[in-house]
Design brief:
- This protein is an alpha/beta fold.
- The protein has two domains: about 260 residues, Alpha-Beta Barrel (TIM Barrel), CATH 3.20.20.70; about 120 residues, 2-Layer Sandwich (Double Stranded RNA Binding Domain), CATH 3.30.160.270.
- It is about 40% helix and about 20% strand.
- The chain has an eight-stranded parallel beta barrel, surrounded by eight helices.
- The radius of gyration is 26 Å and the shape is globular.
- About 0% of the residues have low confidence.
Length: about 525
């Protein structure tokens, strides 16, 4: 079974999408998840373009990734300079990635109009940029920008640009459909011709402007491409990039080619929803393979048929990609999901135990109120322990008060929180200030509890996200708060839902502290 390597550019190309912006910590979290998924390359960003990407390449070195190589992205040298003096090239090398990927011009139209140099000069800057990088980095990938449009306009010159890269002995040449308008038949025909002239391993990078990015990537693999670039959920500029959530299962399950393991494939739906959450966007329920509705059936003939044989209306078994069959009029998917999570959390749960059904009913009721457990598995684990009667109550919050005050028009608001907690028979009454009401409440809770549980000093609040749930009630809408906490050994997410943002935040914070205490014990 031939290996197709997966090159994820969610952290670079994906962030060029409208409405998507990741903090540095977001990018690190996503990189961890991508590594767990089994992608071979994670493109972390363009270190020459902004300080955040420079910091990413510095911080990612502290992470213990299992298999993924970190790639830095940039461009060929500028005209009228040499690679050793080009700021972009030097910054790429200084970031010390595992791999460097640079793009160059393939379309003669771009050489004349964008670079304003001769066609020969463009070949020189492609070749010497890549030669210089190969002397300084173990692995170099070349992205042939606008390749398919360039080939259609001037096939001889487009091939010459690839040969300039091949002569530099790059590790992979990636054919890019940068404008996203090529059709699958064109892609297949052009790749066939390229392979007769270029012996370097080839990759594919497609955009979705013609709604063919996934189809073009898959047909490229069928024609011998060995590296596929794309993003989780198809995030990307304009209409997006090739969606790896569709490409990965297609490669493995449909084309029968090796890419990631069966176990890793079962994490696909989870990482799709995780990255939607981190991007603070609602998951696309109708997304192929990983969407919540991808294997949902509603009434009538469909339900009757899939209850006998799921294959009648499902093209794959949803469990292969971590999804589940759903019957919308009476949801039958939950119990198997609960059993899988219980096993993951090392909680002994019997599928025939009435408690399992109780947990399922609780989940359905909570999801109806707006709870979502993707990215909040600590809250899910605590909920299961409460249902099983194995949850230990380490403390009781007897009450809290949060005051926000603005004394003058030009002054910043001040926030103060007061909490009263009970641990055993002892009561602690404490106040603390913070940068905003939630931070003040977090500080007050920690201040009160650290006297009893010093280990809580290790806990840091890493992320805090708020989403207004669609209910058409304006400022009276429900709020979902998702937070991430961490200590020296790991990180965990919790969730709270309320029509009051402070209350929703309080519940998420309490779960986060509770989770830490349970795992310490």
């Amino acid at each position: 079974m031939s290996l197709v390597k997966l090159y994820d550019t969610t952290l670079r190309d994906g962030t060029q999408a409208e409405d998507i912006s990741f903090l540095l910590e977001d990018k690190i979290r996503i990189a961890r998840k991508l590594d767990e998924l089994g992608v071979h390359y994670i493109e972390g960003g363009w270190p020459g373009s902004n300080p955040k990407d420079v910091s990413f390449f510095k911080d990612i070195k502290k992470e213990k990734l299992h298999q993924a190589k970190i790639a830095a992205f940039g461009s060929t040298r500028r005209a009228k300079t040499t690679p050793d003096k080009d700021h972009n090239i030097k910054t790429l090398i200084a970031s010390e990635p595992d791999v460097i990927t640079i793009f160059g011009k393939t379309w003669d139209f771009h050489v004349y109009e964008a670079l304003r140099i001769t066609l020969e000069e463009n070949l020189d800057l492609i070749n010497d940029s890549l030669l210089f990088l190969k002397q300084n980095v173990a692995e170099v990938i070349y992205d042939a920008e606008h390749f398919f449009d360039g080939y259609k306009a001037n096939p001889d010159y487009a091939i010459k640009t690839l040969k300039a890269a091949e002569d530099a002995k790059v590790d992979c040449i990636v054919l890019c459909d940068t404008n996203g308008g090529s059709m699958p038949g064109e892609v297949a025909e052009i790749i066939t011709k390229v392979k007769k002239q270029i012996k370097t391993p080839l990759g594919i990078h497609t955009h979705n402007d013609g709604e063919c990015a996934v189809a073009n990537s898959i047909i490229a693999v069928e024609h011998g491409i060995v590296q596929v670039q794309g993003t989780i959920n198809g995030f990307g500029e304009r209409c997006g990039n090739a969606n790896l959530c569709s490409i990965i299962p297609a490669i493995k399950l449909k084309l029968k080619k090796q890419s990631i393991t069966d176990e890793q494939l079962r994490g696909l739906s989870d990482i799709s929803r995780f990255i939607f959450e981190i991007a603070n966007l609602s998951p696309n329920k109708h997304q192929a393979y990983v969407g919540k509705a991808a294997f949902a059936h509603k009434g009538g003939v469909h339900v009757s048929a899939i209850q006998r044989h799921p294959e009648t209306y499902e093209h794959i078994r949803p469990e292969l990609v971590g999804n589940a069959t759903r019957v919308l009029i009476s949801d039958l998917s939950g119990k198997s999901n609960i059993m899988a999570k219980a096993e993951e959390f090392k909680i002994n749960l019997d599928s025939k135990d009435p408690v399992t059904q109780e947990i399922l009913e609780d989940i359905k009721e909570m999801e109806n109120r707006g709870f979502q457990f993707e990215g909040a598995e600590a809250s899910f684990e605590l909920m299961m322990k409460k249902a099983l009667g194995t949850h230990k109550k380490f403390f009781q919050v007897m009450g809290f008060r949060v005051i926000d005050e603005k004394r003058a028009d030009d002054d910043k608001p001040t926030s103060e929180a007061t909490v009263m907690i009970k641990v055993g028979g002892k009561i602690e009454h404490t106040a603390a200030e913070g940068h905003g009401p939630v931070n003040a409440l977090d500080n007050a809770l920690r201040k009160a509890l650290e006297k009893f549980y010093p280990k809580l000093k290790e806990v840091k609040l890493h992320d805090y996200k708020v989403r207004v749930l669609p209910a058409g009630q304006g400022t009276a809408s429900s709020i979902r708060v998702l937070i991430e906490l961490g200590d020296k050994t790991g990180r965990w997410g919790t969730v709270g839902v309320s029509d009051n943002i402070i209350d929703a935040s309080y519940h998420a914070l309490i779960d986060g502290i509770d989770y830490k205490l349970h795992h310490e014990e």
